[in-house]
Amino acid sequence: MTDISYSMHERIALLDTLRGIAVLGIFFVNVIYFGQPYSAYNFPTMWGEAEQLNTFVWAFSNLWVEDSMRALFIMLFGASTALLLSEKRLHLGGVLGVERFFRRNLILMIIGAVHALLLLAPHDVLFVYGLLAILAFPLHRLRPLLLLLLGLLMFFTGTLIRSEGAPSAASNSEVPLYQKRASSQEISAFRHGMIQEMQEDVGIYGSGYGEIFDTQKKLP
After folding, report:
1. Which side of the chain, N or C, has fewer Cβ within a 10 Å radius?
2. Helix, strand or coil, per DSSP, at residue 62
3. How confident is the model over 115-138, as a mean pLDDT?
4. Of the candidates 8, 63, 36, 47, which has an alpha carbon nearest to the alpha carbon of residue 196?
5. DSSP string for 140-166
6. Does residue 95 sit within a domain?
7. Helix (H) or strand (E) holding 23
8. What pLDDT is stored for residue 167 in this prediction?
9. 41 in a domain, yes or no?
10. Residue 194 domain-assigned?
11. What is the pTM of this model?
């Protein structure tokens, strides 16, 4: 009984270390997001001072931290899910092991919902992680090759769906959009619109909880 209890609760130091690195990396990126209007992260020269240190921090986060830490966090979540759904662990835990898996992910979904709705963070991913883990439970006995094929199918299906909604050419021209060059007037209008949008965001977030909550509900 002691051996079973120990094997069920034993921590894997490597996974915990990598998870800590990923969380700190995501925290580093989110500090930049939370410290300025959301759109300013992709257009750093339109908000604040474009000093060397600010530009370096933005470039370092954008090129080396954001997607790397996000990918690492996603892989670690998948690895943790695979460990919890391993045949040995489920056999040792029995019904309690399955219950623990579902309870863990339901709690994750609740935390994500609270974070997104009450703490006004609409881009929270914890709810999605918990939901996907629960949906993955019926698939844990499938062969790895079949899981790989299902993953590729979902990936390419999502890519096709997103590509259908993207314009492939200008409305009055057969020249693809990626070959067009914006005029100085178009660039100026774009900058003016983005700066105005950022100023509106700052005004909303400085108004009060109720108005921020109403604004978040309108987000897609």
Report:
1. C
2. helix
3. 86
4. 47
5. TTS-HHHHHHHHHHHHHHHHHHHHHTS
6. no
7. helix 13-34
8. 54
9. no
10. yes
11. 0.71
